[in-house]
Amino acid sequence: MAWFALIARDMTLSPDRVSPSLVYLEACETYQKQSYRNRSYILAGDGVQMLQVPVVHAGSMRISEVRVDWSTPWLVRTRRALDAAYYTSPYYEYYRDELFGVMSSRPDRLWDWNLSLVRFILDKTGIACSLVPTESFTAPGSVPDDYRYVIHPKRPDTVLRDLGLEKPYYQVFSERFGFTPGLSVLDLLFNEGPDAVLWLKRIQSAERTLSGKSAGCRR
Q1: Residue 155: inside a domain, yes or no?
Q2: How many Cα neighbours within 13 Å face the side chain of 204?
Q3: CB 18 within 8 A of CB 11
Q4: Which of 16, 88, 78 is nearest to 53 (CA)?
Q5: Within a domain: 217
Q6: Does a structural domain hold residue 118?
Q7: Is 218 within a domain?
Q8: Spatial separation of the C-alpha atoms in residues 52 and 48, rounded to whole Å
Q9: CB pairs under 8 A, 24+ apart, for 203-211?
Q10: Average pLDDT of each block of 10 consecutive residues along the chain (219 residues)?
Q11: What domain range includes position 111?
């Protein structure tokens, strides 16, 4: 969620203009284990659940070279988990088939898997963004707005709080668990649909006449 919130922060969204943000994707780093590069979190009936893409790698490998492990039925389990968690959410049925189509493309590399999902989410949320893979590795902290190692499941971050996004939106199991922040952006998409970008841009409901023009109706 935090990563997409940062992308949305830097795009211009107004009644007469949508200007995309520019995002550099780190394509030359060494693969980081136990990071968001191969996992995300959703809210299920029994609480927060991790979804993970198993990978095949040997020692130190560039992120763009890491392969997805298709030897186990993890994709079937992931589909079932999403169905169980979001079947009753307001917008899941509108995105489900296309999302599963993207997931079922079975790319060989984790990089291609992630990129296809990122593009799907950008399209469905209405976030305008130009993605540019890096051609060489840059040391952490040497460029502005470097969040490569800030947003990490093992380390707390203040991105959503700093952006003023520690606010609730509808969640299927909120009556059971209360509002759960920091989940996958898919949680926001399935529950807010085309208004997801307005939540990320902190646009109040009274101003949501923008949604038909910028985020579009159901894509």
Answers
A1: yes
A2: 1
A3: yes
A4: 78
A5: no
A6: yes
A7: no
A8: 13
A9: 203/13, 209/15, 210/13, 210/14, 210/15, 211/126
A10: 94 83 95 94 97 88 95 97 97 98 95 97 95 93 90 93 91 94 96 94 55 33
A11: 2-212
